[in-house]
Amino acid sequence: MKPAIEVRGLTFSYPDGRVAIAGIDLDIRVGERVAILGPNGAGKTTLMLQLNGVLTATSGSVKISGVELKRAALQDIRRRVGIVFQDPDDQLFMPTVAQDVAFGPANFGVTGEALSQRVKAALESVGMLDNADRSAAHLSGGQRRRVALASVLACEPDVLILDEPSANLDPVARRELAETLMTLDTTMLLVTHDIPYAAQLCERVVVLDRGIIVADGRAADIFSDHAMLARHRLELPWGFSIPPDHGERSWTAVSPSTPRPDRNH
Predict the structure, then answer these.
(1) DSSP E strand stretches across 46-199
(2) Which residues in 35-69 are b (16+ Cβ under 10 Å) and which e?
(3) What's the CA gap between 49 and 57, in Å, rounded?
(4) Each residue of 199-230: pLDDT tens digit?
(5) pTM for the whole thing?
(6) CA angle in degrees (0–180, nearest 5) for 91-87-241
(7) Calpha distance 106→123 (Å, rounded)
(8) In what order do the strands lie in the sheet with 81-84?
(9) How far is residue 38's CA from residue 215's CA, in Å, rounded to a whole number?
(10) What per-residue confidence (pLDDT) applies to 1?
């Protein structure tokens, strides 16, 4: 089976000469859930936008399900790779939720009963079918995030990319979104700073810094390497750890009585 994502020798420089991607090779298997982590300025967003052709590589290649990203294949690639942006307002602009969800597949040529079924299935998958006739402007932040997700799922992408999916969500909305994402069998990339969310959802983690991949492996192994995380300005939130000898999503909470380390020593 061809990889869902195959990246070879990818580089990208902005017009001012700043190098954002400095040579990346990356394979993502079909059905994998992978977190892309890194400090600010690491190249995470640039990589994300390369994967569906929003940005064009300076050199190297990207293939999605075996289809090479070239100008002639751009519409096909954008159907295959769906991005859920951090701010739902970047994706929700129609009068009703149902119209927002229908917008993408309609642009790809889906019409009539097939379009109605796409919209219904996508909204059901995120638990928002009862809100189909409401305006997204009247929904909570968590609800809008799920509608934005539905608007991408309705296009039936091969690859789903989520940009900081947990940002600005309250604990209940975070949990509800995570539960929704766990039900999906789509190949998934989470571009995030949120290590607990990455650990909950992803079995594999890729750490990016200064435009290169500095670590790639099981979530439990990556998150147990505190020295590597510190070198790249990443750290577990206080009070949590991931034992390296447990499953990828195993978390332990440190007892409140555990002394906090003195960061001055």
Answers:
(1) 59-64, 67-68, 81-84, 159-163, 187-191
(2) bbbbeeebbbbbbbbbbbbebebeebebbbbeeeb
(3) 10
(4) 999 999 999 999 999 999 999 999 999 999 99
(5) 0.87
(6) 135
(7) 16
(8) 81-84, 159-163, 187-191, 33-37, 204-209, 212-218
(9) 10
(10) 72
